[in-house]
Amino acid sequence: MNPLPSAPQVVSVLRNVRPWGGPAVDLHVADGRISQVTPSDSTGAAPSGHVGLAAGEVDGRGLLALPGFVNAHAHVDKSWWGKPWVSYGGEATTQGRIAHERAHRDELGIPGVDVTTTVLRELLRHGTTAVRTHVDVDLGLGLRGIDVVRESLAALGGAVEAQIVAFPQDGVLRRPGVLELLDDAAAAGAEHIGGLDPASIDRDPVGQLDGLFEIAERRGVGIDVHLHDGGELGAFQIELMIERTVRAGLQGRVNVAHGFAVGQLPAHRTADLVSAMGEAGISMTTVAPIGATPLPLDLLREHGVRVGLGTDGIRDLWSPYGTGDLLALTTRLAQLARFRHDEDLVRTARIATSDAAAFVGRTDHDLVVGARADIVLLDAENPEDAVVRAPARELVVAGGRVVVRGGEVLV
């Protein structure tokens, strides 16, 4: 058989691949999108009329094909990836981590185009082709972090597409001027504005959420709130978000990140809260954290609450951990959920790929006609095998271009 391509190329046909572990097909690509899906000759013979592969054709070698991974909760502006080792320090509380980051980010050049580009290339190497990234907006940085992320995305030539959340890591109301910065970010094109623990950080959940929803409704952007507060305090803030989402007509545009409270309430209370979230079209994102009570994935699915998976920070001043490998995180998500049956393992793979389309502003993100040609090839029998083993990404196609081959990033 012909080897995988040795250089970046525009793909016209990706031959002999097995989408979601099914029969071998050829994926035809035009203008960066999948234009046809046709049966493949899985014997490896060249298509009729061809001697070997023509220009633009790539031999997929019968490998498993999945859609590009979608990182639904990232912080690509905050990492020190690629720099000398940075020892963990500061006080291990939310406020302590904020203070430590503010004290040391400048000396590490954070945010910076070089390190942000490095992080994005690492995500791409592991098969992530679309990201929702929270970008710090505060009185010290202004909107500079957003400019850095956009410049880094441009450096990769569109291989990774991203939606930006203007994120008030240091609080909203307790820092006069931050709400105005969030409004400026929305006016300048950020797709979402963020919030942070309205009760425990700002001590004014009604005030913070009213301010965020006013901007979102006026500017036509989404809302994505980091909510670490647990138990009834967290549930109360989710209820405030439900009320405001319905009132503002923002169904499908509001997300709760982390939302630990949803996994900590009594069963009847959880069921009522999740039902109300589903009716309001509120989604959730998780980073599958070790030590936290797992989210009730079955219940969330039952009530139509979309769940996205993300890496959170990667080697930053909050934690030295993180590799950017979203497939490895699906393994952890499945383990924490105690998934063992095939249908649950496949569902976990879909959480990290096709089911996450809305988190990055897409209607379709799958190996289907009309979708952007974001394709990951793995040496695995099926999606279940891929989730359990997280094998290496053999080939990554993004927007119809080969961008990773054998672990080497080509853009």
Helix content: 25-40%
Mean pLDDT: 95
Give start-end ranges of low-pLDDT stretches: 44-51
Ends: how far apart?
26 Å
The tally of helices reads 11
- Strand segment tally: 16
Question: Which word captures the global form?
Answer: globular
Strand order of the largest sheet: 3-2-1-4-13-14-15-16
The description of the largest β-sheet is: 8 strands, mixed
Which characteristics define this entry?
single chain, 411 residues, alpha/beta, eight-stranded parallel sheet, 11 helices
Description:
About 30% of the residues lie in helices and about 25% in strands. The protein is α/β, with parallel strands linked by helices. The strands form 2 sheets. An 8-stranded mixed sheet has the order 3-2-1-4-13-14-15-16, with helices on one face. The longest helix is centred in the middle third of the chain and has 18 residues. About 0% of the residues have low confidence.
Explain briefly what this protein structure is.
With 411 residues, the chain is α/β, with parallel strands linked by helices. The chain contains 11 helices and 16 strands.
